[in-house]
Amino acid sequence: METKLNGKTALITGGSKGIGLGVAEAMVKNGMHVAVTSREQTAADAAAEKLTALGPGKAIGIAADVRDMVAQENAVKRVIEEWGQLDVAIANAGVGHFAPIEEMTAEQWNAVIDTNLTGVFYTTKASIPELKKTKGYLITIASLAGTNFFPSGSAYNASKFGLVGFTQAVMLDLRQDDVKVTTIMPGSVATYFNDHTPNEKDAWKIQPEDMGQMVMDLLKMHPRTLPSKVEVRPTKPPKK
Fold first, then answer.
1. How is 39-72 classified by DSSP, letter by letter?
2. 137 catalytic, yes or no?
């Protein structure tokens, strides 16, 4: 039994580029309606226009900072106003600051933790009431950095280790309400993360459209089965 996705709705934080946009593109091509958020309304609107042109699903852009609980609540309300229901929430927004602990500033630490961990908490809290109504799906985008630590990664590792643990606990909290919860832990993805500009040298990396395919596969899976934690990495990275 494959879950029917045509006409379902989704909210994707940080959905104006990178992984979020790749997932949104896969969704609208499968007939889902998608709200993408960004801290900037212009970026959100530009992504929504591009997505709607792909069709058959529709898209809207919402300015909402994940570090603001009220903004997340308002984003969910906007989805309900537009389409009447929320079936899928993708907590994708994330940032990275990398430095040895002696050089890591309090401002950098707080930016990473507030976005990558507390921001997911806010998105989750805002989405749960509506996801319970639709027996929906919550997906968080973590990282292999949530299980593999590395030098200069104190803030990022802490946020992603915490996010993996957070998501797995939420999965246990919500499974009896028929809300499915998964965390995806990608390795190197060809995105704009950490001021990188995707280029031809990124061909070996996971592509945003690959992440979109993965999310669609999860959404289409039989309701009785839940891949609660998914690690994904490039098949053949360059030799070091």
1. SSHHHHHHHHHHHHHH-SS-EEEEE--TT-HHHH
2. no
